[in-house]
């Protein structure tokens, strides 16, 4: 049966910012396709919590985003379950250093797969369904898409590609589909990769002098999908003013 509520597919939804985005959209009345790769336990806990709030409102979708041939099936499984698709949130992201002199092709492929390639092919598969619902896409970019982070060249390149994808898709998919991005600043310290031993200096360089919270990103996603009806091709910086001092 076709859901009477809007439906969003969120990649990397099991943990961290992805889980906050999923929770925010669900609270706002969206049914959700929750993508995860390895975090099965966290995904199940999130689903149980959301289902406790509203039954039959979620589906778990496990997929390796680097397996490009399987991405159309990810969208198809969402549409099969709910009968529609109103939003795609490309949140999943690989992040680790890629120093010049020790970066391998496999590292390049991994960073581009999650940060640029998968968002493109997911958007391509989702576009016909989003056109039907006059829906939207939100890409989680990064403030480092515009200014580099030392030792993370390939990650910065991949996020720059995602930022350009945001602009280009807005032209390609308009007027039916709006496409925007969010560039987070210091929201959560990464599980791995850059250790951020310079946390105090980083916060000191932020205009608001504090780190953000995952719900700040979730609120921005909801705003871009539901409220910003005359906004497309934009990347909204949610960084506490950090980019002013980069």
From TrEMBL:
Cross-referenced InterPro entries: NAD(P)-bd_dom_sf (IPR036291), Sc_DH/Rdtase_CS (IPR020904), SDR_fam (IPR002347)
Pfam families per the UniProt record, alphabetical: adh_short_C2
Listed EC numbers: 1.5.1.33
GO MF entries: pteridine reductase activity
UniProt-recorded name of the protein: Pteridine reductase
Keyword set, alphabetical order: Oxidoreductase
Record-stated family: Belongs to the short-chain dehydrogenases/reductases (SDR) family.
Species per Swiss-Prot/TrEMBL record: Chiayiivirga flava
Group of enzyme by EC: oxidoreductase
